[in-house]
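Project standup — Tuesday

K.O.: blocked on the structure for the chain from last sprint. Re-posting the sequence here as requested.
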Amino acid sequence: MRVIICKNKKEAVKKAVWLFSQEINNKKDLILGLATGKTMIPFYKELIKANIKFSKIHTFNLDEWYCVDSKDKNSLRSFMDKHFFNKVNIPKGNIHFLDGKTRNIKIECEKYERDIKKLNGIGLQILGIGINGHIGFDEPGTSFNSLTNKINISGEIRNLYSKNFKGFDNVPKYGLTMGIKTIMRSKKIILLAFGENKADAIAKALNGKINEKVPASILQKHKDATFILDKKAASKLE
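H.V.: unblocked you, prediction finished:
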């Protein structure tokens, strides 16, 4: 595992895009694991400008709100369409996403795992990190052996999305997410974090004990994980 600390968010984004580009240049049919959230918006914006050819790429997103239709403006699929998918040449059939409106959670999650395996696994997984150390929708306390599944969303995280859903009570209580074991099977991982509000989570993930209370701490065990941080996010590292 390595840590790259950049002077600001802009520099960190450019570094992440450069590393991302190198991976695709080396493997045109790379299988990507993608993330959503505010951290990803500048990353996708810069990635689009890089004019990378995505025609042979397959993507799997980390998560989706449970009981939210993919066409809903607050769905994570809509986020990806708006900020990335609609602006690059990834074939629609190569975009894999969990169905938040599924009638059978078990079958949906098992199918997602099978689809990833059919393509020989995720080659490069992009991650953000929550203020409580979560990755994907894998909240503190999630088993490190978890696979794709339905999970409870903490009140802390729901509160962050309350504006989007026009009130805390409207934010879904559950999500569908890749499990931590699923994420750890990725051949390469790049985690991005910017700002002072991520400093505690980053310090616990990198300097603390590997603990299910801090899901991102398991990345210390990954053979090829890179944390790309701005100075503010790295401010509490030893």
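K.O.: great, moving the ticket to review. Strands lie at 2-6, 31-34, 58-61, 63-65, 95-96, 124-127, 149-152, 174-177, 188-193, 225-230. The chain has a mean pLDDT of 96.
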